[in-house]
Write a structure and sequence with these properties.
heterotrimer, A alpha/beta (252), B mainly alpha (220), C mainly alpha (288), B: 220 residues, mainly alpha, Methane Monooxygenase Hydroxylase, Chain G, domain 1, 7 helices, 86% helix, elongated, C: MetI-like fold, two-stranded antiparallel sheet, 2 strands, 76% helix, globular
Chain lengths: 252, 220, 288
């Protein structure tokens, strides 16, 4: 039996009084891409952020149930948050490089985790930039400010930054929504490549993007996971009426 | 109604239109054969061009909907089913034209005996009824109606199987009517094909509504 | 008159009125500036800027007042800036929203609402007498520091608030601690605005009279300070003195205007510097 890489068991989450996730059961295998779709405010981003405990940064969050990575509860006492975050990289909606050089952006995750070995850092930076398909474009200007890159390049830099600490899981929160079509296509190709080595959860509002990049698709609505199945099934013959209404654009 | 909805509605109306055209073609080819009406046969041949161009138009419509609207789930299944039904209907149109062509080549008086023993009229009526049935199944999205088709088609199959024997017998008794008999057996085969096309259409309807693939399955 | 014509006319009237009011603001400003320049420019010379006052402040320069004001600016901000910035960081980055944060914010607001003469009184009693520092730069600077603290805290807090949360999430998502995140990501992004706030509070310090009245400012002291425990003259107070209580008010009137001109010039330079800093630093860390 193959263990589920990422899993949620009867997961509930509240922001103060607001009941944001209502008993989610979800699992995906290693080296697959899961797309999380649903209308704004349906809980998909919240759900994504459960897996690197990013919701911890927000006040008044309470969680019930289990979120597991490799079968271990990530909200358990024995797990340290920064250890967890080394295993789970995250990419955001808008490209958000740090006010540093291209090199230092990628090296940031290594430095904050106490790695000082110069050649190792250089190796990791180069490898990560290559994985993010950015190396050839930036190898001659690694010391330039990251803000000099185009939006699409910045987003790939942010992906490289996440990859530098060698995570096993990548969380992507609408990673291409602020990019032009060509940059978007590059990111999507990249996701397809990265699947070989990582398990990826991606939140997207773009239905075609979900259908193009993912193996499985999960439809969230009002804090509930309505349906999670193979992407092919969701986009040809979903089981639930709500899912069908959403993917065909007939939603309320 | 969304923009896509109105495009899909239009597609459905076009397919219904094509259904009506094809049914009328089949009915006219029947009349032409039974009454050896050469004028009516010529009309069927002329109409076939309209059927063909209508089929091309629907093809293009489907292509546009897929390219411009990226339909998914039930919408995608509907467009795909319509695309296939479209070509099934076009084939039935071809069959009607083929029968009309026979009438134009066939210079004999109609032989009532031959029509009687070959049950050709029954076949015509049955295939037209089946076609009408799938048309209603399509426009009313009624899978029960669509499933009826498989039952009704059995009659056509039966007549088709019997036909070889019956026509052979007839030729033995009427050696001067070999030509006519051979045309008759070909017509029987053609009408049997109409039944098959209708079954394909019924399968597409069930696929689009229930997302179930019935094709190449036995014991449906 | 048809609708279109009336619409156009109304548009022109509204536009004209708005322009008139805006221009009147500029006009008033230029009138004041011009008035001061015309009255004061005649006395401003190299000597005026570099000499001691003479003849009961009716002649000579204002060097000790300029130096005094600069000393007060530097020392008071050396005190207020670290405290203010760290408090701002603490308020925005570390504590959660709740009664404690609201309480601190309320207190900060109250602090900035207190009339500056009250700070002067407090400074005199506490720093000058209680702590025994006497009238000195250090006592005046502490008083001024308390005065501008709320401004610095507020600007720091606002600057950090303006830093998009995704930067914090990205940094902590890579395993950075709160301090690593704040120090190496959030603070550099917010820095241009913080520095702007700092410079604006410098110009505030340079202009305040009441807080230094009882704590540091000398009526007449024709020498430069040697340590932070010395008294100094300061531009705004000097202005007050030569304008109201000098030996010969009429004769020293040009000197008053000259002093005002220098003060305005310093404030103007600081404001320009603030703008320039915001532009230069801002372009380096622009958020797109």
């Amino acid at each position: 039996m193959i263990l589920n890489k990422v899993e949620a068991q009867d997961l509930h989450l509240w922001y103060g009084d607001f009941y944001a996730l209502k008993g989610i059961n979800f699992s995906i295998k290693k080296n697959t891409v899961a797309a999380l779709i649903g209308p704004s405010g349906c809980g998909k981003s919240t759900f994504l952020r459960v897996f690197n405990r990013m919701n911890d940064l927000i006040d008044n969050v309470s969680i019930k149930g289990q979120a597991l990575i490799d079968g271990k509860n990530i909200y358990g006492k024995e797990l340290r948050v920064d250890e967890l975050r080394k295993r789970v990289g995250m990419v955001f909606q808008k490209p958000n490089p740090f006010p540093k050089s291209i090199f230092e952006n990628v090296a940031f995750g290594l430095r904050v985790n106490g790695i000082k070995h110069k050649t190792y850092i250089e190796e990791r930076v180069e490898k990560s930039l290559q994985q993010a398909a950015l190396w050839n474009e930036v190898k001659d200007k690694l010391n330039k400010s990251a803000f000099e890159l185009s939006g699409g390049q910045q987003q790939r830099l942010c992906i490289a930054r996440a990859l530098a600490i060698e995570p096993q899981i990548l969380l992507m929160d609408e990673p291409a929504s602020a990019l032009d079509p060509i940059s978007t296509a590059k990111i999507e190709d990249l996701i397809y490549e990265l699947k070989q080595e990582y398990t990826i959860l991606i939140v997207t509002h773009n239905m075609q993007q979900a259908s193009r990049v993912s193996d499985t698709t999960a439809f969230f609505y009002l804090g509930e996971l309505i349906e999670h199945d193979n992407t092919k099934k969701i986009f040809t013959a979903p089981d639930k009426m709500q899912t069908q209404n959403y993917v065909t654009g007939r939603f309320g | 109604m969304t923009h896509l909805d109105s495009e899909l509605k239009q597609l459905k109306e076009s397919i219904n239109e094509l259904f009506l055209m094809v049914i009328s073609q089949l009915a006219k080819s029947k009349e032409a054969l039974v009454n050896l009406d050469q004028d009516l046969a010529r009309e069927v041949r002329a109409n076939e061009r309209r059927v063909n161009s209508y089929e091309l138009k629907i093809d293009r419509d489907c292509e546009n909907i897929i390219a411009l609207f990226n339909p998914v789930a039930i919408d995608l299944r509907f467009v795909l089913a319509s695309l296939k039904i479209n070509s099934n209907l076009e084939r039935i149109g071809d069959i009607a034209e083929g029968i009309a062509n026979y009438v134009l080549y066939l210079k004999y008086e109609p032989d009532h005996d031959l029509l009687e023993v070959s049950q050709l009229v029954t076949m015509f009526d049955t295939s037209i009824r089946i076609l009408d049935n799938v048309m209603r199944a399509y426009s009313q999205e009624d899978t029960n109606l669509a499933r009826n088709v498989f039952k009704q088609d059995e009659l056509l199959d039966q007549i088709n199987i019997n036909a070889t024997h019956v026509i052979a017998e007839y030729i033995k008794n009427n050696p001067d009517k070999i030509h006519q008999s051979l045309f008759t057996i070909s017509t029987v085969r053609k009408l049997e094909r109409v039944g098959d096309q209708c079954k394909n259409i019924a399968e597409e309807i069930i696929f689009y509504i229930e997302a179930k693939v019935l094709k190449h399955k036995h014991g449906k | 008159m048809d609708f279109q014509t009336r619409k156009n006319m109304k548009e022109k009237m509204a536009f004209g009125a708005l322009r008139l009011f805006s221009f009147s603001i500029i006009a008033i400003l230029f009138f004041i500036l011009g008035y001061i320049v015309i009255n004061g420019i005649s006395v401003v010379s190299f000597d005026f800027l570099t000499k001691m006052p003479e003849d009961g402040m009716t002649k000579g320069g204002i060097l000790p007042a300029i130096i005094g004001t600069l000393c007060l600016m530097v020392v008071s901000l050396a005190i207020a800036f670290p405290i203010g910035v760290f408090s701002g960081i603490y308020l925005n980055e570390y504590i959660k929203d709740g009664w404690f944060k609201r309480f601190i914010n309320l207190m900060t607001n109250n602090l900035s609402g207190i009339p500056s003469i009250v700070f002067g009184l407090f400074g005199m009693q506490f720093f000058v007498n209680q702590l025994g520092w006497g009238d000195s730069i250090i006592a005046g600077s502490f008083t001024l520091a308390i005065l501008v603290l709320p401004v610095i805290i507020r600007t720091t807090e606002e600057s950090l608030k303006a830093v998009s949360n995704t930067f914090r999430e990205a940094a902590s998502g890579l395993g950075a601690s709160k301090w690593q995140t704040t120090y190496s990501v959030v603070l550099p992004i917010g820095m241009p605005n913080i520095l702007t706030g700092l410079i604006l509070s410098m110009s505030r310090v340079s202009g305040e009279t009441a807080p230094i009245l009882f704590t540091v400012a000398a009526y007449f002291l024709p020498q430069l300070p040697h340590s932070i425990f010395d008294q100094v003259m300061a531009l705004p107070y000097h202005l007050y003195v030569v304008a109201t209580s000098g030996n010969n008010i009429t004769e020293s009137r040009p000197i008053a205007f000259g002093t005002a001109l220098v003060l305005i010039f310093i404030v103007l330079v600081l404001n320009l510097l603030a703008n320039w800093l915001r532009k230069v630093l801002g372009s380096k860390v622009k958020m797109n």
